[in-house]
Amino acid sequence: MSGGAFCIICGADPPLSSDRTCETCLRDRTALSKMPDRIQQNRCSKCSCYEVKGRWSEMTDEDISDLRVRENLVFEERASGVSASFSLQTVDDRTIRLEVDVSGKIEGYEFSDTHSSLLQTSNAVCPSCTRKAGDYFEATVQLRSAGRKLDSQELADLRSTLDELIESMESNPMFFVTKEGPVPGGWDLQLGSKSLARSWGRSLVKSFGGSVKESSTVVGVNDGVEVTRLTLSYRKPAYAIGDVVKHKKSLWLVSSWQKDGPILRRIDRFERTGATWRDMEASSVVCSKSEQNVIQVLNRDSSGAEFMDPSDYKVSTVALPYDDDGMAQELRIAFIDGEWLALPVSDKGRKI
User: Fold this and answer.
1) How many angstroms separate the CA atoms of 292 and 242, rounded?
2) What is the CATH number of the domain that holds 246?
3) pLDDT tens-digit profile of 174-219?
4) Any idea which of 19-23, 160-164, 295-299 has the lowest mean pLDDT?
5) Which long-range contacts (CB under 8 A, 24 or more apart) does 337-346 make?
6) Using CA atoms, how far apart are residues 142 and 233, in angstroms rounded to an integer?
7) What's the number of domains the chain is made of?
8) Which CATH number goes with the domain that contains 341?
9) Are residues 175 and 202 in the same domain?
């Protein structure tokens, strides 16, 4: 008998693998990959989110199948150049059959195998839906306006920003609304997250101006730590960007928001000033932006412009705004104290 290397299984001559087996024995004793015949998963019966490593996410059948294949397909440690593909067949609402094809190399030899696995789904209830069902909430947000009642369109505009904010943020099971509805003068919402309430408050101030006040109430003790609920009150100003307001006996255009109050622009001359929310409490809106009109200039001279009066379709004249450049073909006008007044152009270029 030769004293050279040989297969430790059948005694065949080289070439041999790293574990001293020939190709035939290597194939007989080695599998390129392994995958269980059944894979169990949980899906929330209320919101249809799947549990993935302790978190719950909304996923399509294709996405969840791809994830489960990646989680459960195990390759032989010596495998290289591995590729895998799968197809799925929906058996019923809670069962999917996965057919997985795998190819790769072990010790330089081409290997391939196929797996058929049932992906079975059990009903469960995610923490978010459990808390919703139990009327759980961490924060109350109150939408109000200073000195007046919010109309339905204002409420819709304010409320829509919450949905936009949730969509823009990283998914969080606590970002939900437990309860909401109208109250005298505004709208109240109960939210599952304090951080969501605070983020929304900052977003509202940035978009609509106004102010936010916070207060906390202790509702219990958990493991020696006080459990609190947040009340966040947002007060929208009685005016919006583009409105003409009477402030300290003069007419001003609301130009933009800052933290402590609006930036105002004088209507009749170049003057800009900042005002606090408290300063503005005595101010009144004399012409909202929605009541203003954009008109086409028919003729103009150095001081005035002719236009078609939108109220009676007769040719009228309006004095040009102080910042008119002599070329604008359109003007924004407001009907104030019985006459039309041309407004200065926007800060952002010459936009109407």
Assistant:
1) 9
2) 2.30.30
3) 888 999 999 988 999 999 999 999 999 999 998 888 889 999 888 7
4) 19-23
5) 337/286, 340/309, 340/316, 341/251, 341/267, 342/305, 342/318, 343/244, 343/253, 343/267, 343/292, 344/253, 344/265, 344/267, 345/321
6) 5
7) 5
8) 2.40.50
9) yes
In the chain, the amino acid numbered 279 is D
Between CA 232 and CA 55 the distance in angstroms is 28
Which three-class secondary structure state does DSSP give residue 99?
A: strand
Q: What is the CA radius of gyration of the chain?
A: 35
Domain that holds residue 260: 239-289
Pairing of strands 55-57, 261-266: unpaired
Closest CA to 47 of 200, 171, 169, 196: 171
Closest CA to 234 of 207, 199, 205: 205
Tell whether 46 and 119 lie within a shared domain.
yes
pTM of the entire predicted model: 0.61
Q: Are residues 194 and 228 in the same domain?
A: yes
- Locate all alpha helices (DSSP H) within the chain, ordered by sequence: 23-29, 61-72, 127-133, 152-168, 194-208
